[in-house]
Amino acid sequence: MHRRLVIVGVFGAAGAVALAAGLHFGSQRQADAGGRADSLFAIALPDASGNEQRIDQWRGKVLVVNFWATWCAPCKEEMPEFIKAQQAWGGRGVQFVGIAVDEATKVRAFADEIHLNYPALVGGFGALDLSKTFGNRIMALPFTIIIDRDGRLVHTQLGPLTPALLQSVISKIV
Amino acid sequence: MNHSRPATRTEGLTLTSDRSGAAGLRISGAVFLCLAFSLARAASPADLLEAERAFAFSVRALDARTLEAHFAVAPGYYLYRDKVRFTVEPGALANTPVLPPGEIKHDEFFGRVATYRGKVVVTLPLEQPAPGQEISVIAESQGCADIGVCYPPQRQRIVLPLPRPGAAPGPIVSAVAPKRAWFR
């Protein structure tokens, strides 16, 4: 009985530590999002037509940068919401930019298919390394970052960004 | 012997429920809720596994011309069957490996796709036996987590020796060392 309680106690403590660690990392993610996105503004990538696009052309706007790929079903599922959001917020200085971890031909085909209304840049697998510098620890997709008009990283999101959360973040900085 | 986290958790619950003391059961319930909550946290993006741990790849040489490849897909993750490929160096496989059928997933964009969860075992027959020689097994794969995150295509390589004639099958060789367990 004594041994049993000791083991139960150890597991209870381990569970509490796991719980605390989970809460800690949840808040840490928000804290990390307070950095700057200067490195992003220093780069240029080709769009799906092969024309080089400098990211700093969108400096001063609220920038939503979405890392995605055609091999990523959850990425494709959320993009229609980004199209709607670009339409709704574009007039107020919000600019969506997609960076595809993919090939130009596939990017162009899918962008045409869904009538993408924001730039689709082609980053290849190197874009995953770029996303890692903004907190994409496991380099999975979709991964989205939101940058305010002053170039501060205000939100990072691994996994789908719900319309409600997107609206909540953008409405505070637009 | 290494114990993974789930195995350790099972051991704890067994120890607390094998007798029916009321206090023990109450504490077991609290522990279970605590662990259940921590598991739920594991399904959040912050706790996602690296690809090589979500889709743990290992190989065993059964004899000098037959390998057995394994994927251990972690709970909450899946691999796409049509993205799984195997090659060996040097040499070649005797034929295209027969992949298990997998389970069908209905995807909005990809339609009906076969996926793997849990354990996947594939036999890899070599074109030429090479007893006592080292061989590299390269696995390509791609998968996702149920919470809506996908990993880029992975390429993992394992180097292992082929058994000499008459020798017992070799040990299972993993692409990634297992994480240290909480308890041993």
What are the SSEs and their pairings?
The complex is a heterodimer of chains A (174) and B (184).
Chain A: H1 2-32, H2 38-41, E1 44-46, E2 52-54, E3 62-68, H3 73-89, E4 94-100, H4 104-113, E5 120-122, H5 126-132, E6 143-147, E7 153-158, H6 163-173
Parallel strand pairs in A: 3-4, 4-5
Antiparallel strand pairs in A: 1-2, 3-6, 6-7
Chain B: H1 5-17, H2 22-42, H3 51-54, E1 55-63, E2 66-73, E3 77-80, E4 85-89, E5 103-107, E6 111-116, E7 118-125, E8 134-141, E9 143-145, E10 149-150, E11 154-161, E12 173-174
Antiparallel strand pairs in B: 1-2, 1-12, 2-7, 3-6, 3-9, 4-8, 5-6, 8-11, 9-10
What would the keywords be for this entry?
heterodimer, A: 174 residues, alpha/beta, globular, B: 184 residues, alpha+beta, 5-stranded antiparallel beta sheet, 4-stranded antiparallel beta sheet, elongated
Note down, in words, how this protein is organized.
The complex is a heterodimer of chains A (174) and B (184). Chain A has helices at 2-32, 38-41, 73-89, 104-113, 126-132, 163-173; strands at 44-46, 52-54, 62-68, 94-100, 120-122, 143-147, 153-158. With 174 residues, chain A is α/β, with parallel strands linked by helices. In chain A, the strands form two sheets. Chain A has a five-stranded mixed beta sheet with strand order 5-4-3-6-7, with helices on both faces. The longest helix of chain A is centred in the N-terminal third of the chain and has 31 residues, at 2-32. Chain A starts with a helix and ends with a helix. With 184 residues, chain B is an alpha+beta fold. The termini of chain B are close together. Chain B is built from three helices and twelve strands; from the N terminus they run H-H-H-E-E-E-E-E-E-E-E-E-E-E-E. Classes of the chains: A alpha/beta (174), B alpha+beta (184).
